[in-house]
Amino acid sequence: MSAFPSSVVIREVGLRDGLQSIPVTLPTSRKIEWVQEAYAAGQREIEVGSFVPAKLLSQLADTAEVVAFAKTLPGLLVSVLVPNLKGAEKAIASGADLLLVPLSASNAHSLANLRKTPDEVVAEVARIRAARDAAGSRTLIEGGIGTAFGCTLQGRVEVSEVLRCMQALLDAGCDRVSIADTVGYADPRSVRELFAQARAMAGERFWCGHFHDTRGLALANVFAALETGVNRFDATLAGIGGCPHAPGASGNAASEDLAFMLEAMGIATGIDLDRLLALRAKVAGWLQGQTLHGTLWRAGLPKTFQGAVEA
Amino acid sequence: MSAFPSSVVIREVGLRDGLQSIPVTLPTSRKIEWVQEAYAAGQREIEVGSFVPAKLLSQLADTAEVVAFAKTLPGLLVSVLVPNLKGAEKAIASGADLLLVPLSASNAHSLANLRKTPDEVVAEVARIRAARDAAGSRTLIEGGIGTAFGCTLQGRVEVSEVLRCMQALLDAGCDRVSIADTVGYADPRSVRELFAQARAMAGERFWCGHFHDTRGLALANVFAALETGVNRFDATLAGIGGCPHAPGASGNAASEDLAFMLEAMGIATGIDLDRLLALRAKVAGWLQGQTLHGTLWRAGLPKTFQGAVEA
């Protein structure tokens, strides 16, 4: 049986994937407090927002301000999501360390959500790469392949199509590629199969796994991906985020539960679980009335729990 | 990476582990309805109750009646829990196919819950085995090792102690041995390590994994156990059951979510998910006001979902 990575990065995406699906606008000051306390709890990669037109996602209209603050924290890798070249130009100008361009492997989902085919997204990524290079910027470009296991419009998505998209993204100049189960269609066996092939294809450019807990399998899927050597996962505090087609359904993997699983396995995350749980309680207060998820906050850490010993 | 079993049995323990921790007494007629519909949905192993003194668990005082009904269903393996020889004699008299004797690997938990040390439980199992043989009964004896990863009284439990208890149970005449994470202390790496050793020790007498979802890891733990070749897991409809020390915390793995995971992986469970979800809705109505768990009931099956193809 396979070995596990000795350490794993949990990228906090609650400020983007989480907040964009919640009908609450957090003031910029609270987002900054969230970033600061996540950093204090040991998180070193945070997706702080999205450069999309403010009329589409007013919750994230202050992304440049949040990036500016986040960039003051030493050693924090600051990510943003961008849907197109215009957003990428803003991301590059903001000084973000990484911009993630989403691509839907499901053609139907791509047309419905991005109004582009997957191949048109790839072409946009090539333009973003050219713009980044022309600007002399060091902002990393991540191609994030969503609906990689299926979606509610199309049903199942074939592995071959995901891998085709991934190769195209790499060829178009992505520094990083990632795979996302956007609506909870993955299962651990499919994860194992796809991630093993994706890692073989992308090598060190394979970056991150992103699993939604829509059908309760997020952590099992993380475990299966871990076994293929993946060492970076997206998650959201309190598991916020989720699927507009399933109101009340679980959102992303909960950062605190994921950190607990990894630390319990002896895999270092750099995260102080008590501090992360304290932040969760604070954010839960800000989001009162919203459906939150996760289990650790209620059960607490096991007695005599020892997390991973950092190397 | 390891192969998976082609089929897995989900033993429904909601009528015992679930109901015993809920302050609602289901009438016998409803328990019978539950057994009947679980059977109709394809479940072929059900723990229908417990032979404990009625003054301790009045919810389960009708176990003999439920066994009698369950035994009318062809091919159903009818299990009951018994804490001691007196309960085992009732179980044997009832005609149950299998009686499970719980043993706590945590000495502190064992004394607090069973008022016996693990070794005293082993001695009781030897008496149960003698009584079963003397009666000429075919009722199988299962030794179920609980708190196998730790407990709230003692904290961590050592693998060596679990294996010592398991060997003692086998030597005392158990036909089957099982491992339970009673209060959500397991993680997938620990599961892999313990289950691989337990399977090597017990061979074909290794029976079942039982995982609570107290800290959200039940399905990840099942996946890790599957990789060691275990092909039988306990679960409860709607994830009922749970830990008296963590009110509101998640209970057992939810049968419907577990069945979904397995079927999505192409592992046959024999379960009709739509029928199981319909039964969940019915039982949820009976248990109104109680905290239920699970995710599939809300999200529904993925579009174009195909379960395992039965051999």
From TrEMBL, chains A, B:
Domain Pyruvate carboxyltransferase positions: 8-277
Keywords carried by this UniProt record: Lyase, Metal-binding, Transferase
Keyword Metal-binding belongs to the record: yes
Keyword Transferase: yes
GO molecular function ontology, one term from the record: acyltransferase activity, acyl groups converted into alkyl on transfer
Matching Gene3D superfamilies: Aldolase class I
PROSITE patterns found in the cross-reference section: AIPM_HOMOCIT_SYNTH_1, PYR_CT
Pfam families in alphabetical order: HMGL-like (PF00682)
GO terms for biological process, alphabetical: ketone body biosynthetic process; L-leucine catabolic process
Recorded family membership: Belongs to the HMG-CoA lyase family. Belongs to the alpha-IPM synthase/homocitrate synthase family.
PANTHER family given in the database record: HYDROXYMETHYLGLUTARYL-COA LYASE (PTHR42738)
Protein's name in the database: Hydroxymethylglutaryl-CoA lyase
Organism in which the protein naturally occurs: Azohydromonas caseinilytica
Organismal lineage: Bacteria, Pseudomonadati, Pseudomonadota, Betaproteobacteria, Burkholderiales
